[in-house]
């Protein structure tokens, strides 16, 4: 026969309602049936029979409604098996509903004497996430509340296993989620977050994420994995994944983060998208600049406004590999104003005060605006200003920042009018050294060397033949009169002490205007 659980509740309260253990155990029972009930009482004397720990009871329960006050859990449609022994109420093979969530294969242990204490609860859960978040905060206590304090809203469902136990000294709550679909808001992130697939494990201040896919605003995340330490000293222990980033949405937020401001101070705006693959990431959450990482990014029509350039920089294709120690570029195609470039190279370290930059430029095209910017930035002497357009190929560029900053560029070029050139150019501070400029076309074939170190000295070397028709082709401001140079000539000019100047070799010239 079956016993009505509500009547059992009334009887128990009538007989032992003055006992805290009885009152707190049976008062939350409002409905259900008990079957296969077994009851046994054993004590050394009559007085001991009143002790709840003398009672042993077993029953199967169905259609039950029950609350576990210590956990804030209200169960409906409950079923399973209950055993009361030595003052501990235990449940096994339990199933039922908790609000909009369901559980199965569950068990619990509720200490009734000498005081009511929830020792353990576990089970497989298909959870409504808003309800689960509220329950998790209650069960996890102050430590859990601190870890989850930044979760502002949460919607969706998750399926997995929940375990709560006071048997060990660390966090009593462990949550293993095998299937997850969720959306919500996290404090400090100004975009909606959505998870379409993934698994996670939460235990104390540790959060492990596996195979996570979803979105942050318009950005998309795929197959992400992370091992996080939460709380006041939160850190990324490890992380990896792939993301498609909407840079126009993300950049203002990233630039507002204190840890990233120094690295982004010379960038005023970014748009476009980028495919980013993170293969290594670790470090403190509170200090992004201290993170250790290995990232590969494939820009897709990325457009950025940089303080150093006269117009927006557009990166159409290529790959950038970044670590804290270096940035490596692989066949990056970029353009700004009327210039375009395809290059590979390295920057070490990317944010340091003494950067070393090495670039291999596959091709460069320079128009009038780009040449004017180069002149403004590096001060090309007026007689040497080239005429646009210029096309360069197989160029190697090296430069360094800091107290001993140096720059050097070597390569070949096609100048205006089809003239071919090879060059080796170096500069530092106010000193320019043209180690070699060789130009050849239908009219000229010569090598030029120039060292320009104002206001002290200059050096000049010339070998070959230069025709006026070539100057008309390649220079932005060619000589007004017919000019010809031919010979093999070297000169050292002391600007402060002209009498110390010297010259050797032979030089035949026509139309030179030294007044310019």
Can you give a write-up of this model?
With 516 residues, this protein is mainly beta. Helix content is 14%, strand content 58%. The chain has helices at residues 5-16, 20-26, 129-148, 247-256, 261-264, 368-378, 468-474, and strands spanning 3-4, 31-41, 55-68, 73-85, 88-98, 101-111, 117-128, 151-165, 173-186, 193-203, 206-216, 219-229, 235-246, 267-284, 292-306, 313-322, 327-336, 339-348, 356-366, 390-400, 406-414, 420-428, 431-440, 445-453, 457-467, 484-494, 502-510. It has a 27-stranded antiparallel sheet. A hairpin with a 5-residue loop joins β6 and β7 (117-128). It is rod-shaped, with a radius of gyration of 39 Å. The mean pLDDT is 85.
Question: How do you describe this structure in short?
Answer:
The protein has 7 helices and 27 strands. The protein is mostly beta strands and 516 residues long.
Give the class from helix and strand content and strand pairing.
Answer: mainly beta
The number of helices is: 7
Instruction: Please tell me how large the radius of gyration is.
Output: 39 Å
* Unreliable runs: none
What gross morphology would you assign?
Answer: rod-shaped
Distance, first to last CA = 117 Å
Q: Helix coverage percent of residues?
A: 10-25%
Rounded mean pLDDT is: 85
* Number of DSSP-assigned strands: 27
Largest sheet: 27 strands, antiparallel
Fraction in beta strands: over 45%
């Amino acid at each position: 026969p079956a016993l009505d659980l509500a009547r059992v509740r009334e009887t128990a309260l009538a007989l032992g309602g003055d006992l805290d253990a009885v009152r707190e155990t049976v008062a939350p029972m409002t409905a259900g049936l008990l079957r296969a009930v077994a009851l046994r009482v054993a004590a050394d004397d009559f007085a001991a029979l009143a002790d709840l720990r003398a009672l042993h009871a077993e029953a199967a329960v169905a259609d039950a409604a029950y609350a576990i006050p210590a956990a804030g859990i209200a169960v409906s449609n409950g079923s399973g098996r209950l055993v009361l022994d030595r003052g501990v109420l235990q449940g096994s093979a339990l199933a039922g509903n908790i609000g909009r969530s369901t559980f199965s294969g569950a068990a619990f242990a509720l200490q009734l004497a000498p005081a009511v204490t929830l020792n353990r609860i576990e089970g497989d859960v298909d959870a409504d996430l808003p309800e689960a978040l509220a329950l998790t905060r209650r069960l996890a206590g102050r430590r859990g509340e601190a870890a989850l304090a930044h979760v502002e809203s949460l919607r969706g469902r998750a399926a997995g296993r929940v375990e709560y136990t006071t048997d060990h000294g660390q966090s009593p709550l462990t949550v293993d989620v095998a299937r997850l679909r969720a959306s919500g808001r996290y404090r400090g992130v100004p975009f909606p977050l959505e998870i379409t697939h993934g698994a996670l494990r939460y235990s104390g201040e540790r959060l492990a994420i596996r195979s996570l896919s979803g979105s942050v605003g318009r950005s998309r995340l795929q197959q992400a994995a992370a091992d996080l330490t939460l709380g006041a000293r939160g850190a990324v222990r490890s992380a990896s994944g792939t993301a498609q980033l909407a840079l126009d949405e993300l950049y203002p937020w990233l630039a507002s983060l204190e840890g990233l401001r120094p690295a982004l101070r010379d960038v005023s705006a970014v748009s476009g998208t980028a495919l980013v693959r993170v293969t290594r990431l670790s470090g403190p959450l509170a200090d992004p600049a201290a993170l250790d990482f290995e990232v590969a990014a494939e820009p897709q029509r990325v457009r950025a406004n940089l303080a150093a350039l006269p117009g927006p920089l557009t990166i159409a294709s290529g790959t950038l590999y970044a670590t804290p120690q270096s940035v490596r570029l692989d066949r990056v195609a970029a353009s700004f104003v009327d210039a375009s470039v395809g290059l590979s190279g390295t920057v070490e370290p990317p944010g340091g005060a003494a950067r070393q930059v090495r670039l291999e430029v596959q091709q460069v095209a320079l128009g009038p605006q780009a040449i004017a910017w180069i002149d403004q930035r590096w001060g090309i002497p007026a007689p040497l200003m080239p005429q646009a357009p210029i096309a360069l190929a197989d160029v190697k560029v090296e430069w360094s920042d800091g107290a001993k900053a140096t720059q050097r560029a070597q390569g070949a070029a096609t100048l205006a009018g089809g003239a071919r050139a090879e060059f080796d150019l170096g500069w530092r501070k106010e000193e320019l050294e043209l180690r070699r400029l060789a130009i050849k076309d239908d009219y000229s074939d010569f090598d030029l060397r120039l060292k320009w170190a104002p206001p002290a000295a200059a050096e000049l070397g010339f070998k070959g033949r230069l025709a006026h028709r070539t100057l008309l082709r390649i220079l932005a401001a060619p000589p007004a009169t017919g000019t010809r140079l031919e010979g093999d000539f070297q000169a050292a000019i002391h600007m402060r002490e002209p009498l110390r100047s010297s010259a050797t070799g032979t030089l035949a010239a026509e139309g030179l205007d030294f007044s310019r």
